[in-house]
Here is the input.
Amino acid sequence: SIYVDIKYGIPTVRSYCNSGINMKKLNDRKEFKQAVELFHKYEHKTSEIISDVAIDQALKSFTNMEDFQGGSDIYQRYLCRIEKNCFTLALIIHFYMQSGDVNRAH
Here is the structure.
């Protein structure tokens, strides 16, 4: 997905999926903490839009780090988007199963 960001009257086109792709590379190298740090960096930039891919990768990172509070926070912040995305919904079910919270996984 691509969106147009206009700063100083000059249109700039960039892909907002780059954050998710970069996070996937970190997760593939088992650099989960760095992936989460990258997620938070993109999340806190007011001009960035967090992609579903980035949310997915953040959930994978938190699951692999067994940081269930961090994953729950992501779930709460992006609940309306997670419920609309079957792949992300499967990740959140896996996340809660790994955390031992079977009731939330249902």
User: Anything to note?
Assistant: The longest strand covers residues 2-7.
